[in-house]
Write a structure and sequence with these properties.
Two copies of one chain form a homodimer.
Chain A (H helix, E strand, L loop, with lengths): L1 E9 L16 H13 L6 E2 L8 E11 L8 H5 L7 E9 L9 E12 L12 E3 L5 H9 L3 E4 L14 E12 L2 E8 L6 H13 L7 H8 L14 E9 L10
Parallel strand pairs in A: 3-10, 5-6
Antiparallel strand pairs in A: 1-3, 1-4, 2-3, 5-9, 5-10, 7-8, 8-9
């Protein structure tokens, strides 16, 4: 029995998330079916990040166990013809027995894409949030800087989420302009439910002048979801990568 | 009775082209239905470019006549809620009676997007052609330069097309790298059926070393479709804009 880890990219537009809805097709289900057919045994993947309905990924991870004799690195190319074209397994490799990315120290990097124009562009509607009002990008950058470091992010967590602690560490935030696109890239050692989308909704309020950059620390200490901005829509969000640190975080990441 | 011109953007993935198939939904049909409902009269648009199934547009044009008293520039925003989100009318304005973009001198600009990587990216699959073999971009640029000017493009026209002449003028071609993307942008005073896709397929053969840049002039003079490369798939192609010259081409464009 060997444990295999997959790097998975998907267009989440037509899925009910990685593993959320009991009704509606999920990315996990489609992977299970394709892997079971390929390996001729019942396969059940376990994902690193359970992305929401409509959210995309370029580098989600999952693991599964198999007794099939296929070389691990051949699994990704062999799946190409067996998966719908909105899911691509970009890499496959063997990992130690019992290894799980959710049990490793890790840094996840998300990118949220905003499309700024007078009218929407149908060619980017599935992968961005359309906003027609001008945004003060410099103010958004000043606001974003307040998020870096270890904070209690309870204000930026969807109500009802069950977690032991709402303290998380954000290691980097950038707000980059790329023509009509604005890309908010957030890396952190952990994220609460809807946290990146609520951070984005709050930064957009700053960009619109509805909040000041200096409000961010006040929102953090309030520990009140109502003080933060709205949850940005799912289609702008993409899980870009998960960096794993099986022997623990390097010191420079935590300072 | 007034004549209105619309600038139309669409994701062509789910359409049987602008106006091609007797079976299957077309962009034109959806526009006719939305405009008829908005203006409360039977509307029939007439397009500048009949893009193929799966081909996209950021700036196709069409005209129609109406007796409705709505201010012309209000038509585009009023259509936003009445069209599916894969079609966006980006501008609407009144033009002289009888005016038609197809009867004007015009320069059309197309962009063909290639995505280069080892494995496909599901997030760009609807808007690019995935190629995993490395391309010699410099050779493609040298090949593209041979296309500029007035030539008989019969070798680059899909067989069976009925046209009076296959002479066309290409005013500009660029091959630009943008990370994993390669964007071939072609402007010209007219295009034959499938011409940009066959040009792209031929430039890709040059990029793969299957043809030399110096073969392009030989392919042009052969007037033989079989000498050119394959037709690139539709989803990489986007009609970016149509510049109209109602009083004729400026001299500098034709030299």
């Amino acid at each position: 029995m060997r444990r295999i880890m997959l790097t998975v990219a998907y267009d989440g537009s037509d899925y009910h998330g990685w593993q959320t809805e009991p009704t509606g097709i999920t990315v996990e289900e489609v992977l299970n079916r394709a892997l079971s057919a390929l390996l001729k045994e019942e396969v059940r993947v376990s994902g690193a990040s359970r992305t929401d309905a409509g959210v995309h990924a370029r580098g989600n991870l999952c693991v599964f166990d198999t007794e099939a004799p296929i070389p691990p690195e051949k699994i990704a190319p062999a799946l190409l013809g067996r998966l719908p074209d909105d899911i691509v397994v970009r890499a496959s490799r063997e990992v130690p027995a019992g290894f799980h990315p959710r049990r490793c120290d890790s840094v996840k990097t998300y990118e949220y894409t905003i499309y700024r124009d007078e009218l929407p562009d149908p060619l980017v509607r599935r992968t961005s949030w359309f906003l027609y009002r001008p945004l003060d990008v410099e103010a958004m950058r000043r606001a974003a800087a307040f998020l870096i470091g270890e904070h209690d992010f309870q204000s930026f967590c969807a109500a009802g989420a069950q977690v032991q602690t709402t303290v998380r560490r954000i290691t980097a935030v950038t707000v980059a302009e790329d023509g009509p696109f604005l890309r908010i890239r957030v890396s952190g050692t952990g994220f609460l439910y809807n946290m990146v989308r609520i951070l984005t909704g709050t930064l957009v309020q700053v960009g619109l002048g509805q909040k000041r950059p200096e409000d961010i620390p006040l929102i953090l200490v309030s520990k009140d979801r109502a003080q933060a901005g709205p949850t940005a829509p799912p289609q702008g969000l993409c899980l870009m990568k998960i960096d794993l640190y099986p022997s623990g975080f390097p010191a420079e990441l935590l300072t």
